[in-house]
Amino acid sequence: MEPKIPGAPGPQPPTVAEPTEPRDPLPPKPDQDAPETVSPTGAVTGAPKTANSQQGPFLTTAQGLRLYDTDHSLKAGARGPTLLQDHHLREKITHFDHERIPERVVHARGAGAHGVFVGYGTAESVCKAGFLRKGKTTPVFVRFSTVVGSRGSADTVRDTRGFATKFYTDEGTFDLVGNNIPVFFIQDGIKFPDIIHAAKPHPDREIPQAQSAHDTFWDFVSLHTEATHHVLWHMSDRAVPRSYRTMEGFGVHTFRLVNDAGETSLVKFHWKPAQGVHSLLWEEAQLINGIDPDFHRRDLYDAIEAGAFPQWELGVQVFPDTPEQTFEGIDLLDPTKIVPEELAPVQPIGMLTLNRNPTNFFAESEQVAFHVGHLVPGIDLTDDPLLHARLFSYLDTQLTRLGGPNFHQLPINRPHAPVNDMLRDGYHQTAVHGGAAPYRPNSLDGGCPFHAGVADGAYVEMPQRVEESVKVREAPASFADHFSQPRLFFHSLSPVEQEHVIRAFTFELGKCYEQAVKERQLRVLARVDARLCSEVATGLGLPVPEFDGELPEVTPSPALSQIGRRWPVEGRVVGIVADHSVDGVEAARAALEEAGVVPLVIAPHGGPLTDGLVAQRTFLTARSVEFDALLLAAAPPPAPDALPARDTKAGAPSSTVDPRVALLVEEAHRHAKAIGAWGEGASVVGDGPGVVTGDDPTAVVQDVLTLLSEHRVWDRLA
């Protein structure tokens, strides 16, 4: 039986001839879902989710008027001028002209999916939020994104990623709007325009797109040294994740939780991916940007369609809620600091599973609106100055992007709790409000709506003493340490990961034009680690700056390294090179599918290779970077299209193995990926760490899967 390979564009195969018999719209694909059909004010309608989609078999205007033609404008004769009275033309073109909305200033490029969150109940001692209760299932929508690039940029750029989760709880909507890096470039939200202006393309040329390797970024961060900790993470492998599915998430800020007894704790939120935290190599990321700019969103959608549902465990680090709001000398209000997990372990409190793709990207992923001020009882804020600026910014930006104050009535944003807000009118008002008295107190509407008490589930801010002081524009003294935690991060990485950081700094600063910017950043690195500074300076051909101060002693945090553990392999992609001799391919494919891995057969041409075996990739279309591991069942000779004029990857013709296959193997070696082979394929793969050969394809696959559980063959990069 031919396996179901993800990526089918429609719910059923099309016919070669254009269908002409009227029929109702096709249903969504099995992997797709749409927002719940609640009303604009949170009432469950009971209507099927397809009620928000197209209806009926015939083409109509927006008012439901059936149309007999949409291919020709109404004209005065076949060669005459178009008539102004063509109402269908005007409606169609006008709507097309207004299809786009302003993209997000940051996080413009992203992708989302539907899922569920199930609480463990382990948070009940610190938080009274209902969605954290044991066994409570809450629908969610999650959007992943890059920060700097435009909507049209590539996925695998070096950048921070957004990890935003909308919980549709029955107490109201809760948005946990975080990143895949636990710290941020700035401590105060008033600097947010500055860091974004510096990271965005240069305003005169609008280049480079979606990159930090340019002068304005490094000019800013080398002068504004509170950014140093985030810069170290940004130069690490964390900034080029293998996929959204293997990306950690953080709430960044410290939040205050309240339990049923009114007791408070301070916490930091963490998302831990079930498949582990894995990244791309920088060369892989660069290749992917050209080969498949949609790599991350395609990986997410394909995994869900294949049934390899991405999962993350939500956890919290819990700290006493003291007046100082510090823990082990670390200021919990400073968003440029972490608390090492060895000091405060992450305690699991629930599981997130993404199990449905969007039905419509624009209506869901593009129009979803997150806000850190969307809270539920039991979750409160702290005095983090970056968090406070976000409370203003997120709400304000929706007014421009989504056309007014009623963005919460869009289907993807509608709460799943009853809404009686006394807010009226405004652009795009879709609720039909009743009553005569949208004010309180009133008697004309019977006094409704009424205030809720704590017992009724009201949200009550936790009383907190505000320090008596004078108005100032300054930071607390505890915010002044900009270098000890970057040093902690660097020294917590494995030698291979440290090398990647060194190369990243060398690459990025090597793209800068101004020598002064490079020299200034080297002075910053000298305050983090002497070897890091020296190696980068050598790569740039610049002198190593002197630093007379003492570098702080730090205790490494092993939790910050991505290397050294084994992880599940479900949803990973393995390429199988075959030709017309397909010995062992079926057995290998079956073993991969049993492990939850997606196998893609690579052959000289597309289509059937045998009665039951179809090639999903060809030597022309395949590239090593889309596979997590490679298997060779053959040593295919050059295919008929192995011509440099037709495929430059073919290079010089070879009399033995197709040069595209040799390139696949060479790149897999270079990128430290597991490689397996049997039969004639063993003659192509060579030997060394992470290369498995044998006579039994199933045994070879099992050994490759074991290697894949460590993500890479790290010994090759040592």
From TrEMBL:
Residue ranges, annotated region (Disordered): 1-57
Sequence position, cross-link 3'-histidyl-3-tyrosine (His-Tyr): 371-394
GO CC field: cytosol
GO biological process annotation, one example: response to oxidative stress
Annotated binding of heme, by residue: 104, 143, 192, 390, 394, 401
Coiled coil: none
Active site: 107, 179
Protein name in the entry: Catalase
Provenance organism: Saccharothrix variisporea
